[in-house]
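JOB MANIFEST
job_type = single_chain_structure
chain_count = 1
residues = 264
[input]
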Amino acid sequence: MRRSVHDNLIQFLRRRQELFPFRRDLDIRQFLGDTIGRSADLCPTPAKIFLLDEIEPDGYGFPLNRTPALDELGTRFQRWLDEHLEQRGNGGDRAQDIFNGYLNFVVKLARNAIEASVLADYSAVFWLLHSQQVAQLFTGFVRRASTSGISREEVDRLKYSLHAKWIRAIGDALPQKGFLTLLVENPLLSAEEFVSPDLRELRGYVTAVMRRDHNEVRSAFESLRERATSLLQRDRLLRRAIELLGYADKTELPILALLDPRVR
């Protein structure tokens, strides 16, 4: 993996200690290498941010400005969702026309980002921003649909049906490489704005896509977390192993550790 990508990602992730509870830069580097491997190279590289106020500490992130083009992109996607909500998912020619207009526009912006990427990966940053837009709009879509008399099960099915259509259209219209590959292969990146430790935001994905009972999945996950914490407290060798993996808190396993294949 490229050292430059990792160095910037490490600086970026070190500022999110609540999500990445590692003690050292080396621990994060090893976690990235062992867990996501080459996919780390597909992530946008955080750039160093220089603030106007020199007293403020510098950091790493993605320096993006709000632009009319990006606002228009979000507006077009919102119109498509609104049309489906008004028609209760039936869509029709009008919804397809709206979607085609959005698709043409997003392809234009995406190609421009690719062509402008001279010694930089603007394409990855563009898709990072737009996938966040899409996730936020889908989250708002669920809230609005839930207050319009549509059952939660129907809302979830409609959301992920529309999301699958979006993924297929983007994949067919553009070459799948770089960060876009991760978006196409991992639907939750653009379908959910945020996932909390109790996994309640995954209800729609579990029921509509996985076809499983969400309560059973949550119960199984909670049981796993309780058993792992209990084992950690009783087993000195396991505590030492967790320490060697770089986790700062050795008394309770964080969510990230339960997803870490090295811990499993």
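[summary]
The CA atoms of residues 131 and 190 lie 5 Å apart.
The first strand starts at residue 47 and ends at 49.
exit_status = 0
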